[in-house]
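OP here, attaching both records as promised.
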Amino acid sequence: MTTWQRILPADAMTVCALMEAFHGDRLDERRRWETVDRCAGPDPLLEGWLLYEGIEPAGYAMLCRGYDPALARETMRLEELWVAPPFRRRRTGECFLAALPGLYPGCAYVEVPSAGSAPVLRMLGYRTEAPALRAACPERK
């Protein structure tokens, strides 16, 4: 079963290992730790999620807050989503993307870059609004 939780300071080692698997040498250790600290802390712009399959960490996601002046509402943009290879055929990423707009009630939308995954994202309710795909968030209760 796919689940997710916001990245907490206690998750730092796990998330850094996942980031290293994704980025390899392109992102040095200092930058990985800095990014995880921001995702797990009170950063007003960056937020992270740790994805699980059962109790195993399966991947992570990082989102940035934005603002759409035309709608006068906050927005969220997916900056990075990575799922470890053993979990890719289990729809881990799709489950998270389908639930993502619901994690931000009151936001105008969640924006996801369309690189290569547009057909899957459209099936999950995202709509093309160049250069990305967007899904409306539910109203805040």
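Record two, same layout:
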Amino acid sequence: MASERWTLAPDRQGVIWDAMLYVPTCAGLIVAAFSFWYKGNPNLTYLLLFLGTFFLVQGAHRILGRLMVLPGSPVAIDVSKQRVVVESRNGARVELVKNVRFFPDYAGKSFGLVGMDLSGSRKQYVFHRGQFPQPDEFKKITASLKVYA
């Protein structure tokens, strides 16, 4: 099998779904935290405030990753039988050459890719169907990666 390369695009529809998930969750937790603060329960306030800020940071990271704004966000993926190369927005190229594993989800909307690079460090990535400009490209890449399942 020859090497195949796919260029990724920002997943704007996925960003909308993530925002619909994270924004009400964070707002609800933070509002509940302030409510418990004024009711005189500081321990529950700190817990809910921690959870709210944790989900805020996690949601921001996920949304910015889908928009490919973060420096480590993948912008292209190159697949062959011997290795998988993931190119980042900052220009770094990570070659996954050892213990490469492909994890498709059951809904067919995303897949995970895990492997060791040339320096021996473990890398993991999640790719979403919306990041591939053409719908058939997602099917082609998942078919190409099945050798790593």
